[in-house]
């Protein structure tokens, strides 16, 4: 058991380090100083409905620089609730969620239904035909299913569609909205 815990921690460290290097070196993943001023403050508040954990975090400063410790905290709360596996969450997804949340008036707590999904958990959902995509953006750390108490899912969907960014899925009977950092599309 010690060995598997160590290798899991090592894998998480490697994934987080790789994400950090991409963030530091990749201009496409990081807003420029000019565009950072146009973005809302980089602060999000999460509640994980499966683990009963909360996180309020500032993940980006006003100059457009990401806080790697804050990103690690986000990776942890958005981990696969089925396996506990942690993965690097795409900062473009965080910016998308941030824009939508701020368009809705700001500070509502994001109630997380599904963030990162391990390949094993996603395959299980596909086998159970729970409307899970075989090649889900969740497996890449690029998708989030959520709701915000006190705000209708229709309003969340509308705010997301106005951004014209990423995927926007609307699940009114299940009571959540899906956002991802893929190409713009909606369903």
3D structure, described in words:
The chain starts with a helix and ends with a strand. With 187 residues, it is α/β, with parallel strands linked by helices. A seven-stranded mixed β-sheet has the order 2-1-3-4-6-5-7. The chain has helices at residues 2-25, 33-38, 68-77, 91-103, 119-127, 153-163, and strands spanning 42-48, 53-60, 110-114, 143-147, 167-171, 176-180, 185-186. The radius of gyration is 16 Å and the shape is globular. It has a single domain (2-186), classed as Muramoyl-pentapeptide Carboxypeptidase, domain 2 (2-Layer Sandwich).
Question: Mind sketching the topology for me?
Answer:
Elements: H1 2-25, H2 33-38, E1 42-48, E2 53-60, H3 68-77, H4 91-103, E3 110-114, H5 119-127, E4 143-147, H6 153-163, E5 167-171, E6 176-180, E7 185-186
Parallel strand pairs: 1-3, 5-7
Antiparallel strand pairs: 1-2, 3-4, 4-6, 5-6
Helix pairs in contact: 4-6
Q: How helix-rich are the residues, as a percent range?
A: 25-40%
The strand count comes to 7
Structural class: alpha/beta
Query: What's the CATH architecture?
Result: 2-Layer Sandwich
The main β sheet shows up as: 7 strands, mixed
Shape call: globular
CATH class: Alpha Beta
The strand line-up of the biggest sheet is: 2-1-3-4-6-5-7
Low-pLDDT residue spans: 1-8, 21-34
Number of helices: 6
Cα Rg: 16 Å
How much of the polypeptide forms β-strand, as a percent range? 15-25%
What integer is the average pLDDT?
85
H-E string: HHEEHHEHEHEEE
Distance between the termini: 43 Å
Quote the CATH topology: Muramoyl-pentapeptide Carboxypeptidase, domain 2
